[in-house]
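Narrative of accomplishments. A recurring question from our advisory board has been how the design workflow behaves on a single, concrete structure rather than in aggregate. To address it, we present the structure tokens for one chain from the evaluation set, followed by the sequence designed for it. No filtering or post-editing was applied between the two.
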């Protein structure tokens, strides 16, 4: 395929010139010949210095030791600074501490965004305020988070000290105390080694707590808060338990209503079944009565020999016409043949009636299966013939209609589809 390419493209696939051989600049390591063989350090031991003349080894400082050393040095420097500032600190000669110390209130943990006017509005409710001094940083000029409020009356300061502690101002709860720099002997601020947040002076009596002389009322407040929290939790638990009981009662009522509904449905079904069975029994009893009546009519009309007894149970009359069958039985061969014909017709008719009863029972069973989707009235209308045809049974009840259908001629039956009298099937 490449022979068909043009020369300029075939030149691209042409082999290059072979690489010329050049001798190496130096020998390989395994080709070199060492003039001086390798040896140990034994010949050079005499050049080492005497260990007795060597200086003692120096030990380097570890990282932990260095950090501990720096911490100690920092503490020592701070102690020296505190001692120097303590010699110079005199709260009674402080130019920033003005006014009466026993009327001045100390407010700490103040929000940095809180203004002097906001503090005045919050603390004026305890009495008239004479002066408010908010402390700012000397380097940055930002607020330090605490202030001094001087009241005009000492009782107002005591009222604010008792009731304003823990008050929320601009989202933060402030800490309120009296000014202790000029009122408590030996008290030192936190920047000079004191605890600051405590309310006792001197290292021997200073205690570490949130800073209250009388902590019982704050402990009582905490206990009240805990009791209130427990009461809310108990109330919440009671509400949950009440809701659970209410939901269980609703479930019980719902289940009882469903059971009652199911029981009512079953009772209705049982009553329908009972009514159906009662109607079936009554129709059967009517059928038996009808058969008995037909048999008596056949006996009366077929031979005319045996008179039907009356409903009151009276005996047949003795003075019948000549040739009538008496109570003692037939009196001739003609009567015997007539009786045999009558019995044969009766057997054929009873067979037809049994077949008709069987068909009627089967139809009733089918209607019973369809009766769950309809009512008894719909079945009666279907049996009496739908489609608006008047067959003379519309005004009759169920019993009368069955009686009418069953009291038709023995040689035919009343069709349930259209109400017309149909011929009986041949034997």
């Amino acid at each position: 395929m490449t022979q068909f390419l043009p020369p300029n493209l075939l030149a691209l696939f042409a082999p290059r010139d072979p690489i010329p051989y050049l001798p190496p600049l130096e020998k390989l390591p395994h080709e070199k010949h060492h003039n001086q063989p390798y040896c140990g350090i034994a010949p050079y031991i005499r050049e080492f210095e005497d260990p007795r003349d060597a200086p003692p080894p120096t030990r380097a400082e570890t990282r932990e030791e260095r950090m501990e050393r720096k911490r100690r040095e920092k503490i020592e420097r701070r102690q020296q600074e505190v001692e120097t500032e303590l010699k110079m600190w005199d709260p009674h000669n402080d130019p920033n501490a003005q006014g009466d110390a026993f009327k001045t209130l100390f407010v700490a943990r103040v929000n940095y965004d809180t203004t002097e006017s906001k503090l005045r509005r919050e603390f004026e409710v305890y009495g008239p305020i004479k002066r408010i001094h908010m402390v700012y940083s000397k380097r940055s000029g930002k607020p330090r988070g605490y202030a001094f409020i001087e009241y005009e009356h000492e009782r107002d300061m005591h009222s604010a000290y008792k009731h304003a502690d823990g008050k929320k101002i601009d989202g933060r709860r402030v800490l309120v105390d009296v000014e202790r720099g000029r009122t408590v002997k030996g008290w030192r601020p936190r920047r000079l080694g004191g605890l600051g947040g405590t309310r006792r002076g001197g290292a021997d009596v200073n205690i570490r707590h949130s800073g209250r002389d009388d902590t019982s009322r704050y402990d009582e407040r905490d206990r009240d808060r805990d009791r209130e929290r427990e009461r809310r939790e108990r109330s919440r638990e009671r509400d949950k338990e009440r809701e659970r009981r209410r939901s269980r009662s609703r479930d019980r009522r719902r289940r009882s209503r469903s059971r009652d509904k199911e029981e009512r449905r079953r009772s209705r079904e049982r009553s329908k079944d009972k009514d159906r069975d009662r109607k079936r029994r009554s129709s059967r009893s009517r059928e038996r009565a009808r058969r008995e009546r037909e048999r008596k009519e056949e006996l009366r009309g077929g031979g005319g020999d045996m008179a039907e007894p009356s409903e009151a149970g009276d005996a047949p009359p003795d003075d019948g016409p000549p040739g009538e069958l008496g109570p003692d039985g037939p009196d001739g061969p003609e009567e015997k043949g007539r009786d045999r014909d009558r019995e044969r017709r009766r057997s054929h008719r009873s067979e037809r009636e049994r077949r008709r009863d069987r068909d009627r029972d089967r139809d009733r069973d089918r209607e019973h299966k369809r009766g769950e989707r309809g009512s008894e009235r719909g079945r009666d209308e279907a049996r009496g013939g739908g489609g608006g045809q008047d067959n003379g049974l519309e005004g009759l009840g169920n019993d009368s209609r069955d009686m009418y259908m069953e009291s038709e001629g023995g040689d035919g039956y009343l069709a349930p589809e259209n109400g017309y009298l149909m011929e009986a099937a041949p034997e």
